[in-house]
Amino acid sequence: MAISSPANSSPTPADALPRCAVCGTGSRQPPFRPNPPEQAPDLDLRPGEPVRSTMARWLQQCPNCGYAAPNITRAHPAAAQAVTAAPFRALMAEAGYPPLARRFLAWAHVLEETGALHAAAEATLQAAWVADDLGQAELARLWRLEAVALWRGGPPLDQEQTVRVIDALRRAGAWDDAATTAETLRRVAELPEAVAQVVGLELRLIAARDGGRHTVASALPPPARRPHVTHQRSQPRGGPGLFERLRRWFGRG
Description:
The protein is mainly α and 253 residues long. It folds into 2 domains: 64-155, no CATH class; 158-229 and 240-253, no CATH class. The chain has helices at residues 79-84, 86-92, 99-113, 117-133, 137-153, 159-171, 175-186, 193-207, 242-249, and strands spanning 60-61, 68-69. Strands 1-2 form a two-stranded antiparallel sheet. A hairpin with a 6-residue loop joins β1 and β2 (68-69). α4 runs antiparallel to α5 (137-153). The N and C termini lie far apart (69 Å).
């Protein structure tokens, strides 16, 4: 006699699965809603735990065409062309890259091809974080430098984006470029106190040839929390920046 499966274990009908906006393939893609991190972010704003360890869930990826995005049921009109082109296919076939890093690089590639260079830089930096976790220092260095190139190739950077460029250069061992970029930012008139404190720490680390991971709490103690990207809300131009909000959260505002 057949035993029926419990209702909550029934397979999801194929027509009810999320469908890739590029190729139309349905696949299981659990939604990700992160809790706020409890630990301070790194200087490049990688969130602290518990969000830090959830990177495998930040992006969805189509098992058929490889399209990756926070939500693969949505895509820029030019995404299909990017995904079917040879560079994307070569990226998907690159066995020397960790699979999770390839997912972030796939998203970065689509963003770059659709003109969203700053967002592509963010995704490329996230691939570097994956390499960090796996102890693959040379790949982390390569992807940090690629992220810097993407940031610099896009619209003018704000102060906080520039701090992230400085940190990426420092972590990649590009000491002269990191120092020059930090000194240029430090000379900005009326630099917010929180940004100035982080830049000051970066300069000390650069002078010491310290390419390691450091947290924002090192510059702005006591402990901080920074929302995951999915918790962010756009700030009106002229409003308080992230480092200023961090300073307030630390109880120094």
